[in-house]
Design a protein that fits this description.
The chain is α+β, with helices and mostly antiparallel strands and 289 residues long. Helices cover 17% and strands 40% of the residues. The mean pLDDT is 96.
């Protein structure tokens, strides 16, 4: 197999279109075709932490138009391409080259063809808003639970005890929102978290929403910073909050300013589960017009 180069990704810069060359094509088990481009504006779903869904859109070339039904993360080692859930390593693993695999119905553009890539801009905008809301909500929740700890623990990007990082089980970005699920069990209690802090969920919710309201429509810039333009390159989300700038690792897409945000709100719900409590935070964002 010809060596497949690492995919250069432009979605961290907000791109939804771009010109690229097909460098590899593979027939998938479901009869569709996986297309690898040398560069792409398509955001793929991450196999290790699949919080943000993949972009959809279309590839256009002289041979036709090819709808992209999803975009997956692929890894290449010793000439072999492994895709999606079959990938046995995390992004950036030594000895692997990482690529974006655009899934299209066969037939597909041929290797060597030049294509124009177009991401669905409405879906991208909705998921970017949801991802920005998710990060801000997690910081607001950490702040709302800052007094619930009896021991020193790692802190988040804003300097508060990192409840989100320590308790998160799953995170799912949706159109203009997100759903995060946390587990409060023996491990978190041993770290010093007092579950009694969740007895009055409405009070926690109100504190988090008050913080989010103080951030909405402020002029703070939001951006993705990176030192490497390939898919596996390390990227960080940076947001200028009224209290100061915050940064955290992120491979997704985002809005570009808090000034675009009219409101972000969270709703909390808890349920007893074996060995502890499960806390669900549902976040919504409304953009300024």
């Amino acid at each position: 197999m010809t060596q497949i180069p690492a995919t250069v990704v432009t979605y961290p810069d907000g791109d939804v279109t771009g010109t690229a060359t097909v460098v590899h094509a593979v027939l998938l088990a479901d009869g569709r075709t996986g297309i690898v481009l040398d560069r792409t504006p398509f955001h793929p779903v991450d196999t290790a932490w699949p919080d943000q869904p993949a972009d959809v859109g279309v590839l256009r070339s002289s041979s036709g138009e090819f709808p992209v039904v999803t975009a997956l993360t692929g890894g290449v080692r010793e000439g072999d391409l492994v895709i999606g859930s079959d990938l046995p390593v995390r992004m950036g693993a030594e000895g692997w080259t990482f690529v974006v695999v655009h899934v299209v119905d066969a037939p597909a553009p041929a290797v060597g063809e030049s294509v124009e890539a177009y991401v669905d801009p409405e879906l991208r905008a909705a998921l970017s808003a949801g991802h920005t809301a998710c990060h801000l909500a997690s910081l607001a929740l950490d702040a709302a639970l800052a007094d619930a700890w009896t021991k020193e623990v790692p802190t988040d990007a804003a300097g508060h005890p990192a409840f989100d990082m320590l308790a998160i089980q799953t995170s799912r970005i949706t159109a203009y929102g997100s759903t995060d699920v946390y587990r409060i069990g023996k491990s978190l209690r041993r770290k010093g978290f007092d579950p009694a802090a969740l007895d009055d969920l409405r009070a926690v919710e109100e504190r988090a929403n008050a913080t989010l309201a103080s951030w909405a429509e402020t002029p703070g810039a939001i951006g993705i910073h990176r030192g490497d333009r390939t898919l596996a390159g390390r990227r960080t989300w940076r947001c200028e909050l009224p209290e100061g700038a915050v940064e955290l690792p992120c491979g997704g897409t985002h809005r570009t300013s808090l000034a675009e945000v009219e409101a972000i709100t969270v709703a909390l719900a808890s349920a007893e589960v074996p060995g502890g409590v499960e806390l669900t935070m549902t976040t919504g964002i409304r953009l300024a017009h």
